[in-house]
Amino acid sequence: MSEGPTFEDLTIDDTLDDVQRICTYVNSTIALQRLVHVRMLGQVCRECGFERTEREILPLLPKLVEDEEFVVRQHLSEQLRYVADVCAADGSIAGYAAIVEGLLPQLKKLVADPQPEVRLAAGESLVSIASHVKQDDLGPRVLTIMLGLAHDDEQEDLRMTAAVLLNELAEKLGQELVVQFVTPEVICLSEDHVFRVRKATALNMDRVCATAGDKTAVKRLVPAFLRLSQDDIWGVRKACAESLVAVSKAVSPELRVDEMVPMFERFASDPSKWVRTAAYQHLGPFLSTIPGESISKELLVHFTGMAYAGTNGGGTTGNVGGGDPGDGDLSLYCAFSFPAVALTLGPDRWPELRALFLALSRDVQRKVRRTLSHSLHEVARILGPKLAEKELLSTFEFFLRDLDEVKVGVIRHVAEFLDALEPATRESYLPVLQEIQNCTSPLNWRFRFLLAEQLTRLTQLFSSAATFSVVAPLATSLLQDPVGNVRDVTCKAIGPLVARLGEADKAWQDDYVLRLFKFANAPGYRDRLTFVKLCKYVARSTSPEFFAKAFLPTLLLRVVDSVSNVRLSVARFLCAVDDVDPPRWVCTHELVVPLLEGLRDDKNEEVRRVYARRRVPDVDVDLGGDGEGGASGGAQGGAAGEAAAVAGGAGGAASGPAENAEGGAAAGAGDSTMNDEAEEGAGAVEADAGTGGGAGADDVDMFSRSRLTPDDLLVVRQLAHGTAMVAIESATVRVTAVLAARAGGASAGVPGVGGAVAAGDIAPAVIVSAAHRQADFGR
To answer: Which partner for 670 in 130, 151, 553, 698 could form a disulfide, CB atoms 3.0-4.6 Å apart?
Structure first.
């Protein structure tokens, strides 16, 4: 008894590179080593390039083609297409020569391999490699391979392979070669004395018919297909029934009506149950290839009778399914192709399908109802609003009360179904959205996820009032869902929703933004994290002016959040290393740039790592104009000034570039409340005002991260609550007073603020500006 290879025999020499390993181990006496390295061919050729492939890899192929293990030959056949891609990508004469003189001769041997797995893999590679062969070389280099297989009188398997490849490559070969060479071979194969060859030919005639053209198809190919459809062997007739749809698509509409319809009638009354079943399984797709006006009532009766197959119910005609109980699956095929048939017939012939639709929608098999529920929106679109409301609403409501397996279909496409209705009827079904959310089990979160996925479309379906009163609260509720996937997909819809409300009524938009700010200041970090995520999508769906004014200041306050995951999410967004890149202007906004520097010293290592990977856009976006009181110059050659102008809107005026940047930054609007962590630690604002106050543990942690002094933190609190700056009207004057106080030690109306700002250290000023904007938006 011979022993297998030992561990030492299987050891790989790690000192060799990949090409050297292949060259060494494809000659191994151990089949496993040969197989492993043959499977590496495509990837290694891509990595090493054409020159080494031509010099070292291609010479190995002749021996591998003759490998004694068929599994090695099979994987070699699969890898040859990737080797050909490398040769073709080189674009040189040598690369093309490697394909036609090196690879095609090896494939010629592999497609004639005695193992069917090898022939299948080699045939797929031959079809792929043929796309790299010039048109003039297709005949002598590619077509001759298939003709050799077709003329092999001893091996029927090779003739079957030829039938498949002739059909697969017909379009690539072109009409001239197909008419002159391929068509005679197909006709010859259709008359083969072995039924398996005739069966393979019946399954592979559609592309040959389409490429040859109507004239050749009518005169030569269709008659051959008709002969096969009347073959003595039921397996050949069944193959014709299965390929009826493909051949019908390949011929002219007139030929479909004149030849294909009578052919189906013969299949429907065939003595073999298997032929009849195959014909009915493909009846729906076949009807969709025929012009609607050419579908007779008799032919349509065959289709409607499928819903009753195997039930002994009324409506069964002819020999549909043979009345065998196992043919009950025909109703599933009927339901699957129902929308295609309805589209072909059009809404005018809906009365002929109404009874069938009702039978399918009430079918005892849930898989039938499930199939129809997934296509109900398509049927509604076909029928039009008025007819859909009359015929489909009862079924829509029925499916919503059905099993979850059925209900999922209408929930997945509820927005598309409602879109197919009249606007008035559409809004009457608004309570359905709340019902879907509230009536599902908390554990069945996938229904809520499907609903959240459609929120973007739902924001455009209803009137602005309905959007504000129903869709907006629904979105807010889904933002609080206990399942993270539901919250994440809901965030994507908030931007379009906010934009839609702004188009309708600015007051509605402001109201909803204030609702979203509750997430930014929620005691639970999960809600604050959700706010950061939704800001990523709002920034892409709304104007820079709106986002900079309403959302950006509040978002930046999360940079000093007490929870590292929140800070990390903000950092990933602003540093452009997230899966959702911010707009270019966000990364260079004058409020953002200094805060990014603060992330460098964050106590969380992951946040610091994100900062190290930050990407700064090369070109900023021109936000259009200087604004009234915006900046005309400033940092980064004026880019910060433009950003400040957008943020500032109609803020106050200042003279110098730096003052413009600061004044513009302070003149916008923001959230209505300060974050919870900033309100803790140092005691009441009123008690600390004028003294500089003390800093508690949370405050110390906060300003150690954000470079805020205790006095700076007090100013943040004062501005957020509006206790220190109530008497000062201008936003620009307010922040200018704060900055002056920090530089000079005192300022009227801002008691207890002292200290100097180090050169370039403006992050605290930005935090103060952001906090002030919160309070201003709230007022």
So the answer is: 553
What's the rounded Cα separation, in Å, for the pair 695 and 685?
12
The percent of residues in the chain predicted with pLDDT above 70, rounded, is 75
Q: CA–CA distance from 36 to each of 6, 25, 179, 736, 772 (Å)?
A: 17, 9, 43, 71, 66
Query: HEC profile for 428-455?
Result: HCHHHHHHHHHCCCCCCHHHHHHHHHCH
Per-residue confidence (pLDDT) for residue 415, from 0 to 100: 95
C-alpha distances (whole Å) from 641 to each of 617, 627, 668, 670, 683 are 17, 10, 14, 19, 37
Greater pLDDT, 56 or 439: 56
- In this structure, the answer to whether residues 574 and 524 fall within a common structural domain is no
CA gap 729, 721 in Å, rounded = 15
Q: Domains in the chain: how many in total?
A: 2
Q: State the Cα–Cα distance between residues 669 and 778, nearest whole angstrom.
A: 8
Burial class (CB in 10 A: 0-12, 13-18, 19+), 564: middle
For residue 747, the enclosing domain spans 542-778
Rounded to two decimals, the pTM is 0.73
Tell which of 537, 555, 585 closes a domain.
537
* C-alpha–C-alpha distance, residues 739 and 757, integer Å: 9
Between CA 443 and CA 427 the distance in angstroms is 29
Whether 500 and 575 share a structural domain: no
Distance between CA atoms of residues 94 and 102, nearest Å: 10
Q: In this structure, is residue 672 part of a structural domain?
A: yes
- Per-residue pLDDT of 377-400, as tens digits, reads 999 999 999 999 999 999 999 999
